[in-house]
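Task card 7
Instruction: Convert sequence to structure tokens.
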Amino acid sequence: METISRFFEQRNQSFFLLGPRGTGKSTFIKNEFPEALYIDLLLPDVFRSYSAYPERLRDVVHAQRGKKTILIDEVQKAPQLLEVVHSLIEEKTGLQFILTGSSARKLRKAGVNLLAGRVLMKHMHPFIAAELKELFNLEMALQSGMIPLVLNSTDPALTLHAYVDLYLKEEVQMEGLTRNIGNFSRFLEIASFSHGAILNVSNVARECRIERKVVEGYIGILEDLLLSYRIPVFTRRAKRAVSSHPKFYFFDTGIYNILRPSGPLDYPEEKSGSALEGLVAQHLMAWMDYRHPGCRLYYWRTSAGSEIDFIAYGKDLFWAIEVKNAAVTHPKDFRALKTFGEDYPEARRFLLYRGKERLISDDISVEPVGEFLLNLNNLS
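Output:
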């Protein structure tokens, strides 16, 4: 695949660039900063050198006085380097550090707060449709996801399986995040049924036959490795009683498809519906991160049962978005959006579906989901 321009906007200030493996962090920084000093901690000899003698970084930087930008790839492999980075920034020599990572856990333990105010926190997401443009294919995205590493593969399904195995072996097992990799693998499969829904920890623990506290730890591992996230309920100026539990998503639809088992007793529309909702979620998360920093993604569910899949809310953004995995719409599909509009007339409301026509009904924009994702950057 040709190099795709990302919506990510780099700054002159130092920044962390966090994101799961394969999302294009290394490709991006090497393309954007071709003249920078590049330190790749995934290389065994480089890792050994800097983990044993982190102060070596100071010597290397001082020896390359012409290099004002220093890229440290997968910095969580040697988090002790952060103290050296901090001291070099304090010297005020005009250096810019770009620190990539695929795990927030080690960085947090190493004290990322040490660099608070001096280093921005940025994220790299899987591709979004507006980045791919004419290369975007909705059906392919629903099946294989949007991870650059996977889309660039000749066999996306095989690459997705290898991707999951890579995380299980290198990030979970080798880093000692869990003692029982079998239990964790079983948890991943059971958790996949909660993609796009409220994750009931007790039910998952019972299905996995492990303790609830262990499952809570597993969820923390997924979130620390940036492989999943939860979105909370929208409660601002609530006029109705609303739910209190967040919804759970894997970071990419392709990962969900690989983890979610299918059999003769499964309805295909159940899996495809969750995949479609997850695809919209990951697009909104990425787009807001790139274009509307400070905005957050929520969902809305009242105690009476009215539910809207996504509420995008921030300083300059207030959207309510319902996603339907159907080629036609029905009056009942609009009920929750109408109810939300009564409580929040300021919100712009969308109904996304698998049909081909665009229309407006009761001030609700009805749009084909693929077109919405492709035009996302032009809607704000």
